[in-house]
Amino acid sequence: MEVHRIKRQRTLELVIISFLIALVMFMTIYFFMVNKFNESQEEFLEFLSSSLKVSIEENYKFAYYNESDIEEDLYYRLKDLSIDMKNIPLKDIDLKMLNKYKKKYDLSQLAILEKKKDGKVYISKSTVAAEVGADTSSWGYWNDAFIQLFGMGSVSINKGYGKEDYWVGPKSYLYNEFRKTGRKHYYKFAYYLNEEQNYLINGIIDEEKYSYDGAERLNKLLNQYSEKVNSIEMIGIIDKDNWITYKEPKRKLTYDPIMEFGNLKGKDFISFGIEPAILSNLEKVKFHPVKYNEKNYKLAFIPLDKHKVICALVKKGYFEDNEILFIIIGIVLSLFVSLITSIIINKEQVKYNKILNMEKDRLNTIEQFKDALLNVPDYVFRCKQRTDKSFYIVYNDGRLVKEKNYVSQDMEPKSMEEVYSNKFIQKASEPLQKAFNNEKISYEYENNNKFYEVILIPVSKDKGKGEDREVLGFVNDVTKYVDMSRKSSYMAYHDELTGLYNRHSFNNDFNKIKDENGNFGIYYLDLDGFKEVNDNYGHKIGDKVLRQISDRLKSINEKDRLYRIGGDEFIVITKRNNMDEHKDIATKTIAAIKKTVKVDEIEIRVGVSIGIALYPQDGQDKEELINVADKAMYEAKRQGKNTYYIGRVS
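== GGDEF domain-containing protein ==
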């Protein structure tokens, strides 16, 4: 009896000890695998974010330039519309008239706002029937902007874009349309004060009319990342300022978009409950755990600029997603192993086999993750350095590899000279040496009008094993992004229709010309009779007329800088400082433009009125000189058109 009791006691002790050992081993391996997987995933995302940010940034700039251009263009449309309506009182405006002007100025919708005696602003007339009679008091800073336009003729709030008698807010959506369809379709809402009749003209333009190319290209790029990178579920670009406004406890009603681009929707981002403080002082990739469709995810925040953040919804590892299940399995498995161990000691091998299988699963997971990483670059290589400082390639792969230069893992390594051209070696030698000195390096390489981004990452090795140091290289073909950047840069400073410099270029050039020249003149040109050309023959004929007029201006003012700043408005900066020269150039310009323009067998005549301001006698800064030239141009029109006026109007 005593022997059996001792045997049972020893068996119980063995069961308990085996159970504890098995449980500790299982949990140690589990948490080790989870940590390694998380480290690998975050290292991959941090590496991916550098190339992702560059490509998204270029496309975002392109979309942003489109938005800035339409804000400026809407100013001139509404300014012309205000001239058309300066003698039309509010009571005489009806839906037929609004639809007529909506079509004429190519607007998506058109509305009229009035300020009533109670001090509130209402939508008095609109092509959207459901909006008529709406009180804007609850519209937050939008209502503040309307009040300022009515009171001061300008807007001082730090939202949207404004100038004299004009303000355009951030892109937003029609609330009644959203309530009806459940879909947030964004527009640009611009407002111009008709001073003669004291009402606001509200021109509305569909986002798809002005930003289709830029937005479509950016959305397509974001969708490609979402589809091709297995870890990314959804991705989008956040407007930080709009999110902070949305999270204010006592915020007023606002329709500003939170998510501007990508397939991560605003309602999904709102459901994550992200505090604005998480996005403040964002300088590098930041991760935040969230739940989506009852599953665990991470939100990766990548700073784009001080107002915008790239936000990616990243899948968590399988181990994290099923943590409780794995713990339960661990306990049951440990108990099972301990019972088997207590009966037949040689069954201990089962435990090691299971651990081996787990290790194999871990390696498979890492290998799959490696495959996902290799699918992103166009070319990947592993390079080592001998003790004599020479480099050799132990592996390369990717679509850019030529068959004769291919080095697989089971092949003999090749020297750099066997694999790459002298041009590439000369460019890569210094960055490679820095990488072997434990620096992460990236640089650009150009060959045959192709541009490549090369990223070099040092790989840590155990110095005690005497292994050669190793660098992992990733190469991406970025030619299309370089070409896109060059095109965007050109479009930012040139008028698309005429090829002349644009208003943005004028703003940049002015101070440089002012610093380099003691005297110069600014000519403000406004075509006479051009509005009738558009009305009678249409905008296509009008565009052809503008091109011919621009060519004539180039031939007269070869030494001067020419800018198209509006529909039929031009600015010339001339470095001539002799009054007779100014008069001569103005006279030649008027004579050239007065000549008949022949377009598609149609003979058209237009004229030009010119206002001239001289630096420094007429003003010291850009705004003052433009104001003097603008008033001088109107004085020329008052004197009968097709003439010029120099200096301040008395």
